[in-house]
Design a protein that fits this description.
The complex is a heterotrimer. Chain A is α+β, with helices and mostly antiparallel strands. Chain A folds into three domains: 50 residues, Uridine Diphospho-n-acetylenolpyruvylglucosamine Reductase, domain 2 (2-Layer Sandwich), CATH 3.30.43.10; 110 residues, Uridine Diphospho-n-acetylenolpyruvylglucosamine Reductase, domain 3, CATH 3.30.465.10; 109 residues, CO dehydrogenase flavoprotein, C-terminal domain (Enolase-like, domain 1, 2-Layer Sandwich), CATH 3.30.390. Helices cover 33% and strands 26% of the residues of chain A. A five-stranded antiparallel β-sheet of chain A has the order 4-5-10-6-7. The longest helix of chain A is centred in the C-terminal third of the chain and has 24 residues. Chain B is built from 19 helices and 35 strands. Chain B is globular. The chains are: A alpha+beta, B alpha+beta, C alpha+beta.
C-alpha cells in the first residue's frame, strides 16, 4: 500500500525525458497514466529508483486521423478514445475496445501507449491494435524507430523497448472504407481482466476478405494473432461456414491457461464463440461501408 | 396510530439525520481520528499457510530511523498477551509464537512514526520459517494422518473441533423409512467475505498521565469488546473506554477481536503513546472473519407432495482457530432453522467443525448466525424436489408452507416462529412477476434455443438474538438496552447498546421515540458506540437492533410515559385514571382542551415536580426478548444464459419482504437492496479459495470480486406486513433478510434454465465457466 | 545511476477546493495521503490496495481520478476538488441533496467518491439514462446500497441542476 522511495522528474520536453532515462541506465520508469505502474509500486513488486513523469510534455496527446491512418500519441487516454468519433467505422475494433478497458475512472488516466509498453498479456489494446495491424513508434536519445506491434510485443510484460526509450505513438494504417471490426471481451465484472477476449478486424474487397485480423487477450503469453485463422479467411467469401471454420482454427491457436476464470477447454470455447460472433459483426460492418462495433 | 408529518414517528420514510456529516466528508471514521504523539502500527503477515517459526530477526527493522518498536509473539508472551480467547471458547494467536497456522497470520508488529516507515521496516524483518504440510480442506483435516494444526492445545489430538446435533434423529429416520420419495443434494456454500468498504482498525491510547485507556475501534459491539479487552489485557474495565465512531460498513466483519487491536493496545501500553492500526485490504481479506465455508448434504423425505422429514449433515471449515462470532452454545449458529418456511414434522441436523490452515471465522456477512447456509440448503433442496417430482416449484412450496393459522409454530428443531404469511408473500411475488406468463415464455424461448430460468426462494429467517437463557456470547447474555432522557425544553437524548454501521439508527430510533412519546423525530438525539456514555448492550449484527434495542427503546418510552402521566395529572389537577394519551399529549377524558403536551411535562419534570416524585424524565431499559423474531420473504429471479460463454444475466428480480412493522420504509428497502446485491455477488462471483499449499486466492479485490453498478440487477421491491406478536412494536429486523434469502433465488434461476436437461446443482459462485461446464455436460452448450 | 544523494522530496503547490496549498512532500506520498494527512481533508477514503474500489476518487482538473493511484507530486500546479469542496455558499451541492433525498448512502464510506464521479458525469451529460449512470459509476464500489438509490440520487441531482437550483 505504500511504495518505496524514488526520485521524481517532470520534464517539459521529450529530449529532457530521454536524457534522464539515459542517466538512470534502466533504473528509471516512465510515468504516463500510471494505472499499472503505481499499483505495482504500491505492492512493491517494482521499485524504480526514479520516475520520469511525461505528462507535462506538450504535443504528446494527439489522436488524429490524417492522410494514411490514425495516430495515437503517448498521452492519449483510454477515455479520449472512448469519446472519440474517429474510432468508429473502419476503426471499429478500436472503438469497441476503448470502453472495455478497466473501469471508467482508470480510463481517465491510463494511456494506450502506456498499455502497449506495459505488455500485459491481459491488456486489451494489444489485441485490437494487432488485429488492425498497428505500428509502434519508439524514441530514444539515439533517434526514432518504428516497429510492427507484432514484433514489439515479446512475451508477458516484455517488449523490445530498450532502457532509455519511450513509446511516443501508435500508428494505425488506414484500412479503407470497406473495413469493420469489434472487440468482444468476457470479464467477470467491470474492471476485471479478461477471462478471454477477441479482437476482430476485417477488410473486404469486392465481397471477399482482403485481410482479416484476429487477435487475443488473456489466452497466451502475450497478445497474439490467430495467424492460421486469418489465413483461412484471406481471399474467401465470408460465408457462415468460412467464419465458423476460421473460429475453430482460431480457438486452436489460442494458448489459454487454467485458472479461476476457467479451464483451458472453456476459454478455448469462448475464443471460438467470440471469434465467430466478432467476424460476423466485423463483416457486417465492413459491408455497410465501415463499422462493426 | 400513525403520527403526522411534524412528529414523523414510525412508518414515515424520513430522510436520515446522519446524512449531513457523510455528505460533507465530515464522517468520523477511525482512520480520520488523530491524537497528539500518535504512532502507526503495521503487521507482518506470514507468507506460508503452515510453518514453524525458527527465528525472527528484527534488528535491521528496529534500527530504521522512525521505528519505535518491533513486537513479536515472544514479547507479547512475556505479558501473557500472545494468545487470546475467541468468542467461541477457543484461543487464537495474537502474534504467532511457535507456528504460523494460516497464510496471512500475524507474525510481528512494527510501530513507527509513519505508516510509510512502518511498511519500510516490515521488509527488513527476517523470519526463518520451516515449512510444514498445509491442510487446505476440512476433509483433509479429518482424514487419518492429517498434520495436527492445533498442537498448541492441550488434549487436542486431531483437527476436529466440534460435533453438534439438533432435532430428533429417530423420528426423522422413521419418516425417511416411510417416505415415498427422498430427494438429496450435496452442495457447497463457499468461503466468501463481508468485505465492508472500510477495513478494520483502531487507535489505542493507553494514557499514562490519566490512567485511562481509550480505544477508537471499528466495533459492532463496543461494550462486549470492552469487557473482553479487560479480560485479555488485564486493564481494569472501568478505565477502558471503547469508542466506536462512524463505521464504514460492518456486515459481521467488525464483531470479532483481531490481533491488530490487541497489538495496538499492547504497543500503546508499552510505549506510552497512542498507536493507530488500520488494516489494509489484503489483511482484511486474508485474516479477518470470513463467512460460510460449509459443505452440506441434505435430504428431504416426501409422502405424496408433502414433506415429512429433513436431514442435513454439515462439515464446517473453521480455519485455524474456532473464532465464530455466534451465541456460544450453538456451534453451527442457528443453522437448525433449516426447515425454513415449511411444515416439516421431523428434522435432524448434525454438524462437525474442522480446523484447517486458513483464516479463522465463518459466522459473518449478514448471515444471521448461519441462517444463510440453512436457507440456501432448504430452498435449493425444495426446488430440486419439485423438478424430480415434475411439479411447479411454486406449487410444491404452497402445498408445504406453514399456514398463517399455524402460528405460533414450533418447528421440528425447537424454534417457535412468531408470525408469518408465507403464501401471501409468495402470491405477491408471483403476481408481480407475471409468473404463469413467464413460464410460458420460458417454454417458447427454449423451443427457440434460448435458455431462460425462473428461480424462487421463500425464506424464513430467525433474528433478534436473543432470550438470555439461550443466547449468550462468551457468557454475556444477549439483552440490549435503551437509555432515554428528556430535557427541560422537551428535546431528548436516546443512548443505545447497539451500534449502527450504516443502518440509520440515528433516524429510525428517533422515530420510535417520536412514535411512542410524540417528541418530533428531529428533537431526539441518538447516541451509540461510546462505552462511557451508553448503556451496556451486545451490539449490532444478526439483525438484532430493532428486535432487541428497538424493543428496549419502546419499553423505556412507555415507562417514561407512565411517569409523564403522573406529572400530567399533577399539572392538570386530575386523577391519573382520568387522563388519556394521544401522541404527544395527555388530556382529560371528555375534555380534550384540558391537556398538557409532552414538552410541558418535560419542563415540569425539572420545575414543577409533584411531591414524592424524583425530578427528571429519564430511565434505562434492559430488554430480554421473550423469543426470536422471524422475518420472511419471497424472492423471484429471472435469468437468461448465454450458451456460448455460460454468462448469465438477471432479467428481473422481484423481492417481497416481510419484517413486520416497518419503522422507516425507505431505510428498510435500502437494507434489502444492499442485501440483494450481496446475494448476487455471492451467487455470481465471490470466492475465497486456496491452493494445495494453502495459498489464499482472493486476498485482493482483483480476485475477490465485488459487483459494480453495471453488473448489479435492478430490483423490484414489494412487501407484506405481518407484525411480530411478541415485539412491543411488532417489528422483526430486516438487515440480513436479503443476503440470507437471495443467493438461492439467483442460483435456482440458473438451475431452472437447465433443470429440464437434468442439471440439479452448480456450486456457487456460478461463474460463467462453471455454468458453461454444466451446459456442456448436458449438451446445451453452444 | 545518480551520483548525488537522491532527492526524494519536493515542494508542491496544489489548488484544493479553490485554495492554494503548498507543502514539502515525499515523492512517494500518494495523493490520497496528501489530502487526508498533509491537508487533514479526511473526506476522501481508502478502501483497497489495488486501485479497484474508487473510494478515493477526487476530481483532478475536473476529471475523476483514483487518488490512491497518483502521487501528490504529480498534482503540482493542478487543481483538485474533494468532497469537502462540494458545499457552496448556497448550501449543499445538488448532488449532495440528491443523495440525501433518495437515500443514496448508508455507511457513507463510498459516498464522497461516488458523488464526485457523478458530478463529473453530470457536467458532461446533464440528462443521463439509468444505463449511462450505472456505466459512469462502475468504477466506484458500494457495499451497502445496491446502487439503485444512487442512480435515483443522480437523476434527482440532474433534475435540480437542469432547473438551475
Amino acid at each position: 500500500m505504500y511504495p518505496a522511495t524514488f526520485e521524481y522528474f517532470a520534464p517539459t520536453s521529450l529530449a529532457e525525458a530521454l536524457s534522464i532515462l539515459d542517466r538512470y541506465e534502466g533504473e528509471a520508469k516512465v510515468l504516463a497514466g500510471g494505472q499499472s505502474l503505481i499499483p505495482a509500486m504500491k505492492l512493491r513488486v517494482v521499485a524504480p529508483a526514479a520516475l520520469v513523469d511525461i505528462n507535462r510534455i506538450e504535443d504528446l496527446d494527439t489522436l488524429a486521423a490524417n492522410g494514411g491512418g490514425l495516430r495515437i500519441g503517448a498521452l492519449v487516454r483510454h477515455k479520449t478514445c472512448e469519446r472519440s468519433t474517429l474510432l468508429a467505422g473502419r476503426y471499429g475494433v478500436l472503438g469497441a475496445t476503448a470502453p472495455q478497458v478497466s473501469d471508467p475512472i482508470v480510463r481517465n488516466r491510463g494511456t494506450v501507449c502506456g498499455s502497449i509498453a506495459h505488455a500485459d498479456p491481459q491488456g486489451d489494446w494489444g489485441a485490437s491494435l494487432l488485429a488492425i495491424g498497428a505500428d509502434v513508434v519508439v524514441q530514444g536519445s539515439q533517434g526514432e524507430r518504428t516497429i510492427a506491434l507484432d514484433d514489439f510485443l515479446q512475451g508477458p510484460f516484455a517488449t523490445v523497448l530498450q532502457p532509455g526509450e519511450i513509446v511516443t505513438e501508435v500508428r494505425v494504417p488506414d484500412p479503407g472504407p470497406s473495413a469493420g471490426g469489434t472487440y468482444l471481451k468476457l470479464e467477470r465484472k467491470v474492471g476485471d481482466f479478461a477471462t478471454a477476449a477477441v479482437a476482430v478486424h476485417v477488410t473486404l474487397d469486392d465481397g471477399v476478405v482482403a485481410k482479416a485480423g484476429i487477435a487475443f487477450t488473456g489466452v497466451g503469453p502475450r497478445n497474439a494473432r490467430a495467424v492460421e485463422a486469418e489465413q483461412a479467411l484471406a481471399g474467401k467469401e465470408p460465408s457462415d461456414d468460412a467464419i465458423k471454420n476460421a473460429a475453430r482454427i482460431a480457438a486452436g491457436e489460442a494458448q489459454p491457461w487454467a485458472d479461476h476464470r476457467g479451464s483451458v477447454e472453456y476459454k478455448r470455447n469462448v475464443v471460438r464463440v467470440f471469434t465467430e460472433r466478432g467476424l460476423r459483426a466485423a463483416v457486417a460492418g465492413a459491408r455497410s461501408g465501415g463499422g462493426g462495433s | 396510530m400513525a403520527t403526522g408529518h411534524e412528529i414523523r414517528g414510525m412508518g414515515h420514510s424520513v430522510p436520515r439525520k446522519e446524512d449531513q456529516r457523510f455528505l460533507r466528508g465530515k464522517g468520523n471514521y477511525v482512520d480520520d481520528i488523530s491524537l497528539p504523539g500518535m504512532l502507526h502500527l503495521e503487521l507482518l503477515r506470514s507468507p506460508y499457510a503452515h510453518a514453524r517459526i525458527v527465528s525472527i530477526d528484527a534488528t535491521e527493522a528496529e534500527a530504521l530511523p522512525g521505528v519505535v518498536a518491533v513486537i513479536t509473539g515472544e514479547a507479547l508472551a512475556a505479558h501473557n498477551l500472545a494468545w487470546m480467547p475467541t468468542l467461541s471458547g477457543d484461543t487464537q494467536a495474537v502474534l504467532a509464537t511457535d507456528k504460523v497456522r494460516f497464510q496471512g497470520q500475524e507474525v510481528a508488529a512494527v510501530v513507527a512514526e509513519s505508516a510509510y516507515i512502518a511498511k519500510d521496516a516490515l521488509q527488513l524483518i527476517d523470519v526463518d520459517y520451516e515449512i510444514l504440510t498445509a491442510v487446505s480442506t476440512p476433509q483433509q483435516a479429518l482424514a487419518e494422518g492429517a498434520p495436527l494444526i492445533r498442537d498448541d492445545k492441550e488434549g487436542q489430538d486431531s483437527n476436529h473441533i466440534y460435533h453438534w446435533e439438533a432435532g430428533d434423529r429417530e423420528a426423522t429416520e422413521r419418516a425417511f423409512a416411510e417416505a415415498d420419495r427422498v430427494v438429496s443434494l450435496d452442495t457447497f456454500y463457499p468461503r466468501c467475505h463481508p468485505s465492508p468498504l472500510e477495513t478494520c482498525g483502531c487507535l489505542a491510547d493507553v494514557n499514562p498521565a490519566t490512567g485511562k485507556t481509550t480505544i477508537y475501534m471499528t466495533s459492532q459491539a463496543p461494550h462486549a469488546h470492552r469487557t473482553l479487552f479487560a479480560i485479555v489485557t488485564g486493564l481494569p474495565e472501568h478505565q477502558i473506554r471503547i469508542v466506536s465512531p462512524d463505521i464504514g460498513g460492518g456486515f459481521g466483519n467488525k464483531v470479532p477481536i483481531y490481533p491488530g487491536y490487541v497489538c495496538a493496545t499492547a504497543a500503546s501500553l508499552l510505549i506510552g503513546r497512542p498507536v493507530k492500526w488500520i488494516d489494509d485490504r489484503t489483511g482484511n481479506l486474508i485474516s479477518t472473519g470470513f463467512a460460510r465455508d460449509f459443505h452440506m448434504h441434505g435430504e428431504l423425505a416426501l409422502q405424496g407432495d408433502r414433506m415429512t422429514g429433513l436431514k442435513v449433515k454439515l462439515l464446517s471449515d473453521n480455519g485455524a482457530f474456532f473464532a465464530d462470532a455466534q451465541p456460544t452454545k450453538f456451534k453451527a449458529g442457528l443453522f437448525h432453522i433449516v426447515t425454513g418456511s415449511y411444515d416439516i414434522p421431523t428434522a435432524h441436523v448434525e454438524g462437525d467443525g474442522a480446523y484447517t490452515n486458513k483464516a479463522p471465522g465463518g459466522v459473518a456477512y449478514r448471515c444471521s448466525f448461519r441462517v444463510t447456509e440453512a436457507s440456501y440448503m432448504i430452498e435449493r433442496l425444495v426446488q430440486n424436489a419439485a423438478y424430480d417430482m415434475g411439479i411447479d416449484p411454486s406449487e410444491l412450496r404452497l402445498k408445504n408452507f406453514i399456514q398463517p393459522e399455524q402460528f405460533p409454530y414450533e418447528s421440528a428443531t425447537g424454534f417457535v416462529y412468531d408470525s408469518g404469511d408465507y403464501p401471501g408473500a409468495l402470491k405477491v411475488a408471483l403476481d408481480r412477476l407475471g409468473y404463469d406468463d413467464l413460464r410460458q415464455e420460458q417454454l417458447e424461448a427454449r423451443a427457440g434455443g434460448r435458455l431462460i430460468g425462473i428461480g424462487l426462494a421463500c425464506f424464513t429467517e430467525v433474528v433478534g438474538a436473543g432470550p438470555g437463557k439461550e443466547y449468550q456470547i462468551a457468557g454475556l447474555r444477549m439483552f440490549d438496552s435503551a437509555e432515554l432522557r428528556v430535557h427541560p425544553t422537551g428535546k431528548a437524548i436516546l443512548k443505545l447498546g447497539v451500534k449502527s454501521q450504516g443502518q440509520g439508527h440515528e433516524t429510525t430510533f428517533a422515530q420510535i421515540i417520536a412514535q411512542e412519546l410524540g417528541i418530533p423525530y428531529e428533537d431526539v438525539e441518538v447516541q451509540e458506540g461510546d462505552t462511557d456514555n451508553t448503556p451496556y448492550g451486545l451490539g449490532t449484527y444478526a439483525s438484532r437492533s430493532t428486535p432487541v434495542a428497538g424493543a428496549a427503546a419502546a419499553m423505556i418510552s412507555r415507562e417514561l410515559r407512565e411517569k409523564a402521566r403522573t406529572i400530567a395529572a399533577h399539572l392538570l389537577e386530575a386523577a391519573e385514571s382520568d387522563l388519556e394519551w394521544e401522541t404527544g399529549r395527555f388530556f382529560v377524558k371528555g375534555s380534550p382542551d384540558q391537556a398538557v403536551t409532552i414538552q410541558d411535562i418535560a419542563f415540569a419534570a425539572y420545575t414543577n415536580i409533584p411531591d414524592g416524585l424524583q425530578a427528571g424524565l429519564e430511565g434505562v431499559h434492559y430488554y430480554d426478548p421473550p423469543n426470536m423474531t422471524f422475518p420472511f420473504g419471497s424472492y423471484a429471479v429471472v435469468v437468461e444464459i448465454d450458451r456460448g460463454t455460460g454468462a448469465w444475466k438477471v432479467l428481473r428480480m422481484v423481492a417481497v419482504d416481510d419484517c413486520g412493522t416497518r419503522i422507516n420504509p425507505m431505510i428498510v428497502e435500502g437494507q434489502i437492496m444492499g442485501g440483494l446485491t450481496e446475494g448476487y455477488g455471492i451467487a455470481a462471483m465471490q470466492l475465497i479459495t486456496f491452493d494445495d499449499d494453502g495459498n489464499c486466492i482472493g486476498s485482493t479485490f482483483m480476485d475477490y470480486l465485488l459487483p459494480t453498478a453495471w453488473e448489479t440487477p435492478v430490483f423490484e421491491i414489494d412487501q407484506t406486513v405481518t407484525p411480530s406478536p411478541h415485539h412491543p412494536l411488532g417489528a422483526k429486523g430486516v438487515g440480513e433478510s436479503a443476503t440470507v434469502g437471495s443467493p438461492a433465488a439467483y442460483v435456482n434461476a440458473v438451475i431452472d434454465a437447465l433443470a429440464h436437461a437434468g442439471v440439479r446443482n452448480i456450486d456457487m459462485p456460478l461463474t460463467s465457466d462453471r455454468v458453461w461446464a454444466a451446459l456442456n455436460e448436458v449438451g446445451l452448450a453452444e | 545511476m545518480a551520483i548525488e544523494a537522491p532527492v526524494v522530496t519536493r515542494t508542491i503547490t496544489v489548488t484544493v477546493n479553490g485554495k492554494a496549498r503548498t507543502a514539502e512532500v515525499e515523492n512517494r506520498l500518494l495523493l490520497v495521503h496528501f489530502l487526508r494527512e498533509t491537508l487533514a481533508l479526511t473526506g476522501t477514503h481508502i478502501g483497497c490496495d489495488t486501485t479497484s474500489c474508487g473510494a478515493c476518487t477526487v476530481l483532478l482538473d475536473g476529471v475523476p481520478v483514483k487518488s490512491c493511484t497518483a502521487f501528490a507530486v504529480q498534482a503540482d500546479g493542478m487543481s483538485i476538488r474533494t468532497v469537502e469542496g462540494l458545499l457552496g455558499d448556497a448550501g449543499l451541492h445538488p448532488i449532495q441533496q440528491g443523495f440525501h433525498e433518495e437515500h443514496g448512502l448508508q455507511c457513507g464510506f463510498c459516498t464522497p467518491g461516488m458523488m464526485l464521479t457523478a458530478v463529473a458525469l453530470l457536467e458532461e451529460n446533464p440528462d443521463p439514462s439509468d444505463e449511462e449512470i450505472r456505466w459512469a459509476i462502475s468504477g466506484n464500489v458500494c457495499r451497502c446500497t445496491g446502487y439503485q438509490n444512487i442512480v435515483k440520487a443522480v437523476h434527482n441531482a440532474a433534475a435540480r441542476m437542469r432547473e438551475g437550483s
